[in-house]
Fold this sequence. Notes:
The two termini are 31 Å apart. The strands form 2 sheets. Strands 5-2-3-6-7 form a 5-stranded mixed beta sheet, with helices on both faces. By secondary structure, the protein is of the alpha+beta class. The protein has 6 helices and 7 strands. The radius of gyration is 20 Å and the shape is elongated. 33% of the residues lie in helices and 24% in strands. Strand 2 (78-90) and strand 3 (96-106) form a beta hairpin. The model is unreliable at 8-16 (pLDDT under 50). It has helices spanning 23-34, 47-59, 115-125, 131-146, 160-163, 187-197, and strands at 69-71, 78-90, 96-106, 110-112, 128-129, 150-159, 173-178. Bound molecules: guanosine-5'-triphosphate and zinc ion. Guanosine-5'-triphosphate (GTP) binds at residues 90, 92, 130-132, 159, 161-162, 166-167.
Amino acid sequence: MAVTLEPSHSDGLSAGPVRGADPLEDVARRLLVEIGEDPTREGLADTPKRYAKWWREFVGYDPGNVETRFESVSNNQLVIISDMLVWSLCEHHLLPFNCVLSVAYRSDASLLGLSKFARIAHKHAHKLQVQERLVADIAAEVSEITGAKDVAVIGRGEHLCMTMRGIRTGARVTSAVFGGVFEHDGPERSQLMTLAQNHSPLHR
Ligand SMILES: Nc1nc2c(ncn2[C@@H]2O[C@H](COP(=O)(O)OP(=O)(O)OP(=O)(O)O)[C@@H](O)[C@H]2O)c(=O)[nH]1
Ligand SMILES: [Zn+2]
C-alpha cells in the first residue's frame, strides 16, 4: 500500500531555522544549516520544497493494479522477466542503491501480466530497504499473486553507501531467492542465471 506523508507537527522538530508549514521542509532547512549552508541563499531557496516533494514521491509511489492475471496457455511454461532496473534507498545510510532484477516463475495456474513484475519491483523498492529484503519481498509477492511455488528473483545492485563513501569499492552485490524448481541446479536455474549475469547496472 502506498504511504502518504501528510504534513504534521507532532514530530518534535521545532528547532528548525525557519519554521514553515511543512515539517519535511523544516527538516531540509535544518539539514542545510547543520552542513554549513545558508538555506536562504538564492540557489537553496526552493530546495526544502523540492526535498519534501521528492520524499513524498518516493515513498508515495503507487504501483497501481499488480494483479491482472490470465489463464495459463501451456503447462508449466518458464517465464523470465530480466533486466528490470529499480532504484531504492539503503535503510542504513539513506543513500540510493540501484538493482537490476530478473524474476522467473513457472505456473500452471495463471499468468501474470508482464508489466506487473516491474510494478511489483518498484513497489518494494520505493521504501527504505536492504537489497536482500527487496529481492525476497518481490519473490513473496509474485508467489502470492500467481500461486506459483517455482519463483526466483535475482538482483544485482550498486550501493552508493559502498561506492561514493565508506569502503569506496566498485563492488556489485548479487542476491537471490530461489524457490521450488529453481532451488536445484537444472535447466530452469541455468537459463535464469545466464540472463541475470549478462546484465549489471553499468553494462546495460
Ligand atoms: N546486507 C546488506 N548490507 C547493506 C546494504 N546496504 C548497505 N549495507 C551495509 O550496512 C552496513 C552498515 O554498517 P555500519 O558499520 O553500521 O555503518 P558504516 O560504518 O557506515 O559502515 P561502512 O559502510 O562499512 O563504513 C555496511 O556494511 C553497509 O555496506 C544492503 O542492502 N544489504
Ligand atoms: Zn548503505
